[in-house]
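debug: dumping io for the single-chain case to check the tokenizer round-trip. Nothing else runs in this session.
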Amino acid sequence: MSQHSRDLSRRRLLLGGAALGAGTFLTACTSNEAQPTQAQTKDVAAGGNAAPGEKVVIGFSAPAADHGWIAAITNNAKAQAATYTDVEFKSVEAGADAAAQRAALSTLIAQKPQVIVLLPHDGKELNAFGLEAMAAGIPVVNLDRAFPDARAYRTQIKGDNYGMGVAAAAYIIAQMKARGVSSPVIGEIPGIDSLELTQERSKGFADTLNAAGFKVQRRVPAEFTADTGQRAASQLLQALPKLDALWNHDDDQGIGVLAAANQAGRKEFIMVGGAGSKKAMGDIQTDNTPLKATVTYSPSMASSAISLARLIGQNKGMADLVELQVPKELVLASETITKENASKYLKFGF
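debug: decoded output
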């Protein structure tokens, strides 16, 4: 399958969840149902930078909202824009792949927005568009999937992918030491392997495990969907008759991972998820599956991207900083959610 085809949906709209015996099918609800999760927005207080100012037209594009995390990205962006009376929000369809998104964005440039907020299908393939927009005098806020050329964006905001791997490994290391397991068998199920963000996550995981004298015994990529997560987990579990710990990069694909584990009758390992969906947090709280923790990659970054785009369009800085301009890059920390603190994070889940 081509990268474009695989990247059509970082995770599909899922109708499935837990596995139910042989011939399993996915039936439980995922993070993206008919009713969208309440958007993660920042209250706009009176005065300061939040006070109404010059009107800013913000163009926006992200891959189709056909799964929980991407749906939350678009939902958050729209909702945050609506909190400002001086923001006009113009969204264009991303299309099926990077080429289609590039064509749609060309029509957006012709509308001359003050700023563009863009989550690209693929940062490398859309880098040329970022350069074009910047050259046309339209600042670009690059969201999540990084452009390789710093000249292609005015500001970049993303999650800490390397830090996700570090956090997942740190939790597993602590659990293995607490259980007295000196040579644990550790598995890993990443998402789309061709994406830089996936590679960064795996590197953070491997580097941290190696520093503790541990390593990944088996790594089987999925594609950020429940069905591919189930297939990858089935392969991994067959290859490892004994498993102590597993890191699955994405909570939507984790639904399929848990389905495969249930079908195989495998409960001897602990599992760490990724991103922070409401379903994953619920499973962690209930504590009746191998999933014991998840590491965050919050779609609230889209809300922040809109706020930053507004400030850039109005030639303002961030009120609490001494600097006159919005920073070039912001990286959100990856936090670890466990049974002990899940209740605090539920409102941020997607």
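debug: round-trip ok. Residues 1-36 have pLDDT under 50 and may be disordered.
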